[in-house]
Design goal:
The chain is α/β, with parallel strands linked by helices and 182 residues long. The protein has five helices and six strands, in the order αβββαβαβααβ.
């Protein structure tokens, strides 16, 4: 069996045509969504859920009766991005009566992945009090997929919050962390 070079396994940008243009496109879609006054009638921007400047979120409420809470956790290898590039991913949740929250969180290397996990748990617990009825649905991409998966672990969320989790969808989560160990 030959040894595999794992150092390149998660460096996917160089394999995607025009990869550097994507963050700007995501940002534009998110900004257009946040500025759509026809679609959005009740929005709370930059709501703090922790002490750090990065521990903020945007919350979008549906025009119809709120039936639950959707939370999307962004990716970026725990080192990049924030809530401002993902607002447009709230649309489907809003159309189905869910409030939608998009948080930022502290980033590595300033904090550990364990501390980021605590940030997300604190955020979801905070949100569970703001939207205190109905199911909680979590989704996250890449590092965000890893973080939403962690919310399923025993003791990460208070029991009254974890009891409300109905769906957790990690999208392309970082699950095999071996290539990231130096």
């Amino acid at each position: 069996m030959s040894e595999v070079d794992l150092s390149d396994d998660y460096a996917n940008a160089k394999y995607i045509a025009d990869a550097k243009s994507f963050p700007g496109k995501w940002q534009a879609k998110a900004t257009n969504f946040r500025n759509n006054k026809t679609l959005l009638s009740n929005v709370e921007l930059d709501i703090r859920y922790g002490a750090s400047e990065r521990e903020k979120m945007d919350i979008f409420y549906p025009k119809i009766r709120t039936v639950g809470l959707f939370v999307f956790i962004h990716g970026g290898y725990w080192r990049a991005f924030d809530k401002s590039s993902w607002s447009h991913l709230s649309l489907g949740a809003l159309e189905n009566g869910f409030a939608s929250a998009i948080p930022s969180y502290r980033l590595c290397p300033e904090v550990s992945i364990a501390q980021i996990t605590e940030d997300i748990a604190r955020c979801i617990t905070f949100l569970s009090k703001k939207v205190n009825e109905g199911p909680i649905v979590l989704a996250g991409h890449s590092a965000g997929g890893h973080l939403v998966s962690r919310m399923l672990c025993e003791g990460v969320l208070p029991k009254n919050v974890s009891d409300r989790l109905k769906r957790v969808t990690p999208i392309s989560p970082l699950a095999d962390l071996q290539p990231l160990i130096f």
